[in-house]
Fold this protein.
Amino acid sequence: MDKRVENDKSRRIKFDMKVDIWSDIRCPFCYIGKRKFEMALEQFAHKDHIEVEWHSFELNPNAVTTPGLNAYDYLAQAKGQTREWSVQMHENVSRAGAAVGLDLNFETAIMANSFNAHRLIQLAKAEGLANEMEELLFIAHFIEGKNIDDKAVLLEIGVAGGLEKVAVEELLSSDDFGMEVREDERTAQQMGVNGVPFFVFDHKLAVSGAQPPETFLGAMEQAWSAAPSREEQV
């Protein structure tokens, strides 16, 4: 075989692009943003070369889990407003969710601290299952009305998301992956992130909020075109 041909076959071009996403399970716009990003990704010509990494962000680290308090009543109390006002405020969010196929149920969404859910996501990330875990936790919180700070609920979700039962039990009986949650939050703080969802494309192009799919698609295309090809010996 011609040596030049052999050398060509021993090389491959890599165009992998990273998308980092900071998100909180308690944030409805994070769920909506996730769905809009996924819609954009489906249209992206190089979607098979995209690596998505989820990062932890707590909108309210001091939130107290209160199983008898739903999203409507929590916002009303937090803002000193009536329940009717809170329901009206949530209507716009419900419509935005419905537009991307999400039936958000704020009547049953339990007020819960999300730290342990983030620890579960960090464990899932270590196993390459973070995206699945994000989706299941969003469903549990916003659609099924489950308590995402309840250990039995988190165990059920963890196993459903592909994790070993023993691994999830060990997580929930320890402080494991708490440092990873805090490190994600420190990184966000250093970047000046004060709200989620927050997307960073290829370490350089940022998009904040649950933007339209075409915005995410444009960001991916821009980041992709700006990155040089990388050759790697194999």
Notes: Strands lie at 11-14, 17-23, 50-56, 66-70, 110-111, 198-201, 205-208, 230-233. The chain has a mean pLDDT of 92. The longest strand covers residues 17-23. DSSP finds ten helices and eight strands in the chain.
